[in-house]
Design a protein that fits this description.
- It comes from Gluconobacter thailandicus NBRC 3257.
- It is built from 11 helices and no strands.
- The chain is mainly α.
Length: 232
Amino acid sequence: MSLPPSLGNAINSSLIAFPALFSIINPLGASLIFAQATQGRTRKEVIELARLVALNSLAILLVSIWFGSWILSFFGISMNALRITGGLVVASRAWVMLQQPETSEARKEKQALQGGRTVAAPDLKERAFFPLAMPFTVGPGSISVAIALSSSCPPHMPAPDYFMGVSAAATAMGIVVAVAYAYAERIVSMLGVTGARIVSRLAALILLAIGIQILISGVQGFLVETLRLAHH
């Protein structure tokens, strides 16, 4: 039994978007730092905080996916320029993650812990958005990936199908973040620092390939436009 074309398109786009989002957010590696940030809190507080961080992160991703490219287009930035820029940002970020995972870990740890105030903060909702959702979970790199994905709809695919699939991938990412953060202590005991760095490097390698793919699609778009103008 074959799937309806719109559903098939949505599934295909979500299968492209999810690895990109997973690689840049790296919830397994981030959960190790989240466990430190929530040390001393009750189990109920950790689960509530994980849920709030995931919801806030999902909201940031969806806004970036649905409105990011439109905002840039409003300022006269073409879709192909956006793809090239997004591809470069994603690839460069992945390269740093691949070569210097310790530096990325230290930056994220500084963002999450905020000098130890995260643990002591009485208002969970305040810390759930800043710094735990943004910039710790979804920072500039994640937003760049989301905007780059929003501009990467294949020419043969209807835009609503594509955006539905990318949004589904972002939603799935939010669920993964909620689960990873809620069970951060167990993930720490299973992976450890070495295991987390192995996962981070694998994720960075996938992200590097995705960034190059987005970059190539932008260059191809410019070449097609140039050839079309030359024929006219």
